[in-house]
């Protein structure tokens, strides 16, 4: 403990002394106390902790899963079955056997044992006061569910309070930030494991004894493993999206932060339309990744300072198809792939890459198109200032029915009126051009010129769609 700051040593010492004071009354309980149950639960808790960190030969725990394989139901069973001093004692062996990192490994183990003992003592004290010492033997045991949940909440709150205290003393964290997120992040699992611990305790006291109670643990471990797999999959999805966004930001400095803002505006539209949460999340990702196809566009074109030639415009206009090819194999994106491919289509059929009209354009693409145009107009560029939000909304309404879906425009306008628009000032603005509502095809890309040959899904060649005026304020990288 010498390596720790004096305040941290004092915090740990105080916690250990408080835990000893809470557990000391156990010596006065006498032979009639449930010592055998306390020893069995302590051994079970220690075994669960050992198995979590050092699995048996042949038992493979996937990487990243161990933190979810918790021994919390065993601790809570001790809270419900044992007097408060014995509940505190039962938590100590497993805490001392759990691995700890250097530096100050011994101090870490002592701290972990002390905080678990104090949390279990406080939770058991509350449960005894609320439900009574014979609650589990009552034929009306379902009535103890609320006291059990309250005890689980107290256990979580004590652990969060002590963890915040050690952050302040050992790491120098500010008090207003030391406890931030600790209770909220751990309360859910504690409340989920509360009924599992209660079930373990009821079976423990039942006709079949502790052997029946052990049947609860495999089911809990299986559910924890499934949750861990889901958590890892979601983390992998977020990492994939983040890597793609960073790659685009590195390639095109002008659009840095643009995807995040388009994703935010897409979510506002989706919520206003009453779309379900899963589709709202897909639209958020679609907005973030809508310009991922820029990875296939030559960097010199994205960063060109002067006007683009027709050939250069044609190359930049390939970015929706490039983007679709990049994300084609990413299964979790779902219909976000359609938004990436079609967010430059127009209702009047003068968009690209396929000149789709009206309802032929996927709904997600119509949402992202409006969000994309809105951020284009409300972002500051080197050659002009951002338009005010009311002016941008007026321009979107002017173009509704020709370029944009009027329903999406109305949804964004209503959401902005209700919530306002708060772009992150730390993010560089996107250099998208002004948005005319006439023939030019889309807000962020100059009008298409000659396109490469090849049939589209509608049997037309991209180069065969004429009659589009050149965008009056095009800039390189406005895609």
Automatic annotation (TrEMBL):
CDD domains: HDc. Residues 447-457 have a biased composition (Low complexity). The chain crosses the membrane at residues 74-98, 110-132, 144-166, 210-228. Residues 423-479 are annotated as: Disordered. One of its GO terms (molecular function) is hydrolase activity. Keywords: Hydrolase, Membrane, Signal, Transmembrane, Transmembrane helix. SUPFAM superfamilies: HD-domain/PDEase-like. Residues 233-428 form the HD-GYP domain. This is HD-GYP domain-containing protein. It comes from Streptomyces ramulosus. The lineage of its organism: Bacteria, Bacillati, Actinomycetota, Actinomycetes, Kitasatosporales.
């Amino acid at each position: 403990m010498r390596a720790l700051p004096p305040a941290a040593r004092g915090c740990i010492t105080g916690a250990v002394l408080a835990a000893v004071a809470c557990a000391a009354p156990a010596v006065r309980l006498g032979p009639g106390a449930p010592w055998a149950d306390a020893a069995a639960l302590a051994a079970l808790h220690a075994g669960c902790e050992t198995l979590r960190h050092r699995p048996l030969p042949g038992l493979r725990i996937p990487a990243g899963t161990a933190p979810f394989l918790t021994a919390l139901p065993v601790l809570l069973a001790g809270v419900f079955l044992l007097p408060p001093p014995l509940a505190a004692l039962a938590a100590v062996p497993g805490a001392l056997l759990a691995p700890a990192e250097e530096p100050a490994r011994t101090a870490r183990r002592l701290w972990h044992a002390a905080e678990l003992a104090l949390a279990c003592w406080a939770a058991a004290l509350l449960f005894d006061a609320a439900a009574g010492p014979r609650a589990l033997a009552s034929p009306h045991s379902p009535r103890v569910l609320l006291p059990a949940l309250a005890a689980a909440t107290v256990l979580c709150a004590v652990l969060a309070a002590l963890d915040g205290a050690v952050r302040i003393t050992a790491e120098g964290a500010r008090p207003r930030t030391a406890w931030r997120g600790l209770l909220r992040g751990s309360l859910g699992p504690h409340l989920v494991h509360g009924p599992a611990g209660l079930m373990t305790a009821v079976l423990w006291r039942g006709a079949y004894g502790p052997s029946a109670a052990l049947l609860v643990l495999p089911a809990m471990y299986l559910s924890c493993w499934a949750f861990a797999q889901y958590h890892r999959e979601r983390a992998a999805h977020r990492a994939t999206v983040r890597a793609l966004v960073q790659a685009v930001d590195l390639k095109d400095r002008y659009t840095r932060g643009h995807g995040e803002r388009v994703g935010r505006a897409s979510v506002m539209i989706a919520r206003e339309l009453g779309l379900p949460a899963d589709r709202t999340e897909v639209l958020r990702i679609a907005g973030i990744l809508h310009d991922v196809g820029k990875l296939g566009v030559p960097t010199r074109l994205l960063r060109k300072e002067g006007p683009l030639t027709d050939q250069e415009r044609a190359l930049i206009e390939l970015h929706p198809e490039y983007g679709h090819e990049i994300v084609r194999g990413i299964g979790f994106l779902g219909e976000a792939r359609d938004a990436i491919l079609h967010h430059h289509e127009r209702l009047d059929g003068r968009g690209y890459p396929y000149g789709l009209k009206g309802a032929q354009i996927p709904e997600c693409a119509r949402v992202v198109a409006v969000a994309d145009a809105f951020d284009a107009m409300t972002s500051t560029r080197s050659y002009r200032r951002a338009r005010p939000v009311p002016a941008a909304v007026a321009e979107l309404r002017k173009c509704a029915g020709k370029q944009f879906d009027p329903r999406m425009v109305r949804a964004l306008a209503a959401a902005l009126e209700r919530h306002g628009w708060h772009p992150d000032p730390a993010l560089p603005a996107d250099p998208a051009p002004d948005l005319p509502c006439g023939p030019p095809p889309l807000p962020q890309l100059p009008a298409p010129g000659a396109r490469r040959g090849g049939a589209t899904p509608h049997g037309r060649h991209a180069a065969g769609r004429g009659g589009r005026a050149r965008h009056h304020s095009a800039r390189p990288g406005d895609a």
